[in-house]
Structure formats: C-alpha cells, structure tokens
Amino acid sequence: MQNEKIHPQSHAQKTLSCYLNNFLKEKTRVQNGTAIEPLHRMRVASRRLRAALKAFQAIGLLPAKETLDWSRRISLVGRALGEARELDIQLRFLFSIKRQLKNKHLIVGINELAEILQERRAIAQKKILDVLDQFKTINFQSNLSKAESLNKPLEIKRRDVIIKKLSNFLHCEDHVYKPKKTKLLHHTRIAAKKLRYVLEIFKSSYGKKINPAITAARRIQDVLGDLHELDVWLEYFPKLKKKGGQSKNLKRAVFYLEKTCTALRAKTYKDFIKEWECLKEKNTWEHLKKII
Fold first, then answer.
1. Helices (H) and strands (E) in the chain — how many of each?
2. Topology of 8-291 in CATH?
3. Is the pLDDT of residue 201 over 90?
4. Which pTM value belongs to this model?
C-alpha cells in the first residue's frame, strides 16, 4: 500500500470538502443559466460527492442514516441537473449538424426542433432553481467517525468496496455484445463510472499504479456516454413523429436526423466493443485486483 500515513478520517474530510466545494461554487452560474459548462461541472461534482459519501460510509467513516439523507438531498439536485444536461447535449448536437447542412428545408426543420427542445430546457431550468433554493449545505466534519484503531479493517473494507464495484462492472459483460439492449448498455456505463469514482476516491492509498484502471474506466464511460446520447435521440424520434401539427420541414429534419443517428450509433457501438476487447487483452481488470 502507498501513503498509508494519510489518516483515513483526514482523507475523508478533505475529499468530501473538495467535492462539496466543487458542487457549490457553480451554484450561482447554474442559477443564471447563461452557460452549459457550469451545469455540467456541478452535475459531475454531485455524482462524485454521492459516490464519496457511499464509499466512506461503507468503510465505516460516516453514519448510515446521515449519509442516506445527504445522498437523497444531493440526488434531487443531480436529477434536475441531469434533465437539463441531456437537453443541452441534444441542442449542441443539433447545432453541430446544422452547421454541416446546405439544404434550407432541413435547416428550417432543425431550427423548429431546437425551439421545442429550448422550451423543455426552460422548464428544466425552473426545476433547477426550485431544488437549489431548497438545498441546505452539509457539515461532514462533526459526523466523521474516529478511526485511529481501525486502520487494518479499513484497509480490508476499502479493498472490498473496490472489488464490489469492479465485480458489478465486469458482470455487465453478459450484455456487452447485445447492441440492441440500450438500457443494459447504459447500466454498463453507470457501473464503469462508479468504479472510476471509487478508484479516484481511494487513489491516495494506492498511488499511480491504479491510474491505468482509472483511465480504462473513463474510456468505457466516455464511449458508452456517446452511445447513450444517440439512444436518447433514437428513442425520442418515434414519439416526435406521433405528435400532430408538424411542418413538412420538421418531418424532413426528423427523418434525416434519425438516419444520421442510426449510422453514428452503429459506429459508436463498434468503437465500444473494440475498447472493451482491448482492455480485456491487456488484463487491465485482473491487474487491478492484484494491486489493491
């Protein structure tokens, strides 16, 4: 083990305080709703914070009742941010497609679709304002358990937490090769994200030797994130088609976008499989088990 001189309680306090600060410092800019990156950073910070709460509770440094309450409060904000983030990504995708087009009818149709999404984004922004107004800050320090006599058990518990996240992730291989199982592939992304976060949380105990595993989990998370964004679109198009009162330009745009997203999705899935098999060949996950 590396850096075992770092006191577990101090590490937990430092990590939680850092994540909470990253979460709160974006609050004003998110409330203003003027840029999409502050919202993205706040959402990521909320996920990291929840992951850290659960990890430190699992090794005995935080009380279960308070941890559950904090996680629920942060989760409410995270869900509101997630709805808005999804729409931000969709709008950014639309505008990137629009820049490549020369067909005036398609451009008009994409503008009409963008207006629909922007209306939904305005509603999502109101939800964000409501949950942030109700959010109360958290004080971790007074709740952290004294762990001077728990160093050996903590070492074992810490490894157990990582192994559990790794096992959950590797169990996803049962549906990795099923391209149509969109929800299960999204679950794989979530499992990769949770593994990555817990590795980052406990990195100070293992040092740089776990960096390859962190990078690998991030790569799987990213490519499956791209896949999920396309799946969200492909799930939305049939619903959009059923709505009445659509212009011919909007219908043209939906048909074009559906075809485009289908092709992109096929390519992205192939990229994912290539990444997955590459990591298997390198024995990335077996090596992680040996070094923790």
1. 12, 0
2. CHAD domain (1.40.20)
3. yes
4. 0.90
